[in-house]
Design goal:
Blueprint lengths: L4 E3 L2 H4 L4 E4 L1 H10 L7 E5 L4 E10 L4 E10 L7 E6 L5 H12 L3 E5 L10 H21 L7 E2 L5 H10 L2 E5 L5 E2 L20 E5 L7 H9 L3 E4 L7 H16 L4
Parallel strand pairs: 1-3, 6-7, 6-11, 7-8, 9-11, 9-12, 10-12
Antiparallel strand pairs: 2-5, 3-4, 4-5
Length: about 250
Amino acid sequence: MTVPVFHASRELLAGSSTVRLDGPEGRHAALVRRLQPRERIDLTDGAGLVAECVILQSDGYALDLEVQDLRMLPAPSPRLTVVQGLAKGERGEMAVETMTEIGVDVIVPWSAGRSIAQWKGERGAKSLAKWRSTAREAAKQSRRFWWPEVTEPATTARVAKLLAAAAVPIVLHEEAELPLAGIELPAAAPAGGNGAAHEVVLVVGPEGGIAPEELMQFAEAGAAPYRMGPTVLRTSTAGTAAAAVLLARSGRWD
C-alpha cells in the first residue's frame, strides 16, 4: 500500500521526535482516511523536508505521530518551469494537476492575447487559488516532496523576461520545424549551485494559440519554437506531454 503524504510546517517537523498532526490535514487523515495506530505516513513541508512517521494514536480529528526519520531532499534539477496559457473551464486545472503529477517545478499562468479565459478581479483571485489548491492536492497524491510553485498571473512581457533568463527557453508551436524530442538540455546543477542557471522554461499557448506578435517577442528573448509531433494537442494536455519529453531528456526520470 502506498504511504500517504500530508503537509506540515517546517517548524512542526524540525527537532521533535513526536508531532501532532491537527487542523485540516489531521482531520482528513483521521476522519476521512481513517488512518489507525501503527500505520505509516509521511509529512512534508513541500520544500524538500520529509518526516517518515508512525501513528501512535488517533482521536478522530488529529493524529499523534512518532518521527522515525527526518531528511532533506535536494531540489530537482534542471528546474522546469511551464508557462501555461489561461484555459477556459476546468482545462487549466487539468493541466496543473497532470503537470504537477509528472514533476513540473513552477507553473506560470499566462494571460495571452488569444486567451478565451480572463482572470480579473475576484474571479481571477478565485481561479488562481483553485490552481494552487489543485497543485497541492496533486503533489500529495503523487508523493512529491518538492511541491510546484504556482505564481501570480504573468503578462506577455513578463513571460519574455522569464525566457530571456532561462538556460533553455522553449515555445511550443504546431508550425515549428524543430522537434522537441531532439532538444539538448543542461546537466543537473551541482549541489549548492545556481539552479536558475539550469532552468528550462516552456511556453504553452491558450486555446486560440500564440499570436504572431507574441512569437516575435519571445524570439527576441531568445526562445526557439519547437513542435511535439504531427498532431495538435489541446492546451490542457500539451504542457504535460511536452514536460514529459523534457523530464525524460533531462535525466530526471532515470
